[in-house]
Amino acid sequence: MASVRALSRPTRGLPLSQISRQTSASSRRWASSQAAEAPLEDLEDSALGAPPLSEEEKKTFRPWKRQADRKFALPSGRYNYHAPKYDRGPLHPVQPLPSSEPTARDFVPGPFNLPRLRQTYLSTVASDIMTLTYLHTPPGTPKKEAPQRLREWDDSSPYHKNRPLRAPRGAPVLPLIERDINFTNIPEIKEITLAAYVPAALQDMDNLLVARSALLALTGVLPEMTKTKSNVQQWKIRAGEFAGCKVTVRGNEAYEFLDRCVNLVFPKIKDWRGVKASTGDSSGNLAWGFTPEELKLFPEMEVNMGMYPPKVSHS
């Protein structure tokens, strides 16, 4: 009836065609509003639909308030997985997320490659080293005290009282204490440092540039310059002059470089006797050297040997 009254006033004096158009438009609006208010009876009932809410439930249904209360009652990340803060070794049952995982604490994009030597170490060598060096310690065994490596003063003089301990016998510096190998400290390759000493660079700096180019080709990292530390008059060496370069590679780059040495360079060296067992500092570090002729056996140097000046043979 409201629609009829609304149409009675504006239709006075209008033509019949315009009145019919307004009547049909208003009837359509009325039909659409009636359909919106009425339930959708033409659709079949589904078991997945939620039951209708009562008037009391409509007043108390406030999901945003429930979410706000839950935020203070239970932390949002309480039931989420949290990576351990400490890396307890490659064989520990609880492992942190890999660095390539976006949710990891030490997220780094990558790795984009997995060196074969590193894969062999993680799958075979690490467990073999732990098995070979295993020492069974029964539960309840008291821990060994750290050995006394510094010498004490005797009481032969009153001046020895309250004096600090003396240096170790036979060496001015204490060597590192070797710890028992377990799943937390299995030996692995941490880094590889390549250093080149070029005495000819004291007279001609071009020799040093060639050495830097060679190390850059081998590692892909720009080497840093090194200076001499002391004066040697007979060799015409003065302290503070540039006479070498060095570069350090870590991670997958270190494994890739060692892989090239073992599989490509060492087999090509004529009468190669291996790495001496007495080399290094007896604290886990090893050292060996390459002659200029052996350095050319690396694939990065061999294919581009024409780009290096002839002075590379003297560096």
Automatic annotation (TrEMBL):
<dbReference type="InterPro" id="IPR031310">
    <property type="entry name" value="Ribosomal_uL5_N"/>
</dbReference>
<dbReference type="Pfam" id="PF00673">
    <property type="entry name" value="Ribosomal_L5_C"/>
</dbReference>
<feature type="domain" description="Large ribosomal subunit protein uL5 C-terminal">
    <location>
        <begin position="244"/>
        <end position="305"/>
    </location>
</feature>
<dbReference type="GO" id="GO:0005840">
    <property type="term" value="C:ribosome"/>
</dbReference>
<feature type="region of interest" description="Disordered">
    <location>
        <begin position="136"/>
        <end position="165"/>
    </location>
</feature>
<dbReference type="GO" id="GO:0006412">
    <property type="term" value="P:translation"/>
</dbReference>
<feature type="compositionally biased region" description="Low complexity">
    <location>
        <begin position="20"/>
        <end position="38"/>
    </location>
</feature>
<feature type="domain" description="Large ribosomal subunit protein uL5 N-terminal">
    <location>
        <begin position="183"/>
        <end position="238"/>
    </location>
</feature>
<dbReference type="Pfam" id="PF00281">
    <property type="entry name" value="Ribosomal_L5"/>
</dbReference>
<feature type="compositionally biased region" description="Basic and acidic residues">
    <location>
        <begin position="55"/>
        <end position="66"/>
    </location>
</feature>
<keyword id="KW-0687">Ribonucleoprotein</keyword>
<dbReference type="InterPro" id="IPR002132">
    <property type="entry name" value="Ribosomal_uL5"/>
</dbReference>
<dbReference type="InterPro" id="IPR031309">
    <property type="entry name" value="Ribosomal_uL5_C"/>
</dbReference>
<feature type="compositionally biased region" description="Basic and acidic residues">
    <location>
        <begin position="142"/>
        <end position="158"/>
    </location>
</feature>
<protein>
    <submittedName>
        <fullName>Ribosomal protein L5 domain-containing protein</fullName>
    </submittedName>
</protein>
<dbReference type="InterPro" id="IPR022803">
    <property type="entry name" value="Ribosomal_uL5_dom_sf"/>
</dbReference>
<dbReference type="GO" id="GO:0003735">
    <property type="term" value="F:structural constituent of ribosome"/>
</dbReference>
<feature type="region of interest" description="Disordered">
    <location>
        <begin position="1"/>
        <end position="66"/>
    </location>
</feature>
<keyword id="KW-0689">Ribosomal protein</keyword>
<dbReference type="GO" id="GO:1990904">
    <property type="term" value="C:ribonucleoprotein complex"/>
</dbReference>
<comment type="similarity">
    <text>Belongs to the universal ribosomal protein uL5 family.</text>
</comment>
